[in-house]
User: What shape does this take?
Amino acid sequence: MSLERTFAIIKPDAVEKNNTGKIIAHIEKAGFRIVAIKKLHMTRAVAEGFYAEHKGRGFFDELVSFMSRSPCFILCLESENAIAKWRETMGATNPEKAAEGTIRKLFGGSVGENATHGSDAPASAARELAYFFAGMELL
Assistant: This one.
């Protein structure tokens, strides 16, 4: 099996609660290498562009408002089978249904404010990484 990269976000709710360091420790303990990381405060326009595939859905405005309300951390993670491994490490979208020990179980508050985001497929990982990172940032 070869190394794979995936995109991750430590969302505003987790940053606001000062859980960033705990989540990064969880990421490293799970065996990921952090290829790149940066803190940013998304503008509404940046959040709308990132979540454009959800435009027209009932939760779009709430999602964009949440993601642009305060800073977050964006990451490029690398490991064997990184996409599936990161989704397993995060846990279910609903923290109440997430497995014990997962990031969302430990740090998520609700379906809408669940501490982290992760790509769901190689194509979305490539698109999401390219949206926030210049190629030279991912060496």
Notes: The chain has one domain: 3-138. The mean pLDDT is 97. Residues 3-138 form a domain with the Alpha-Beta Plaits fold (CATH 3.30.70.141).
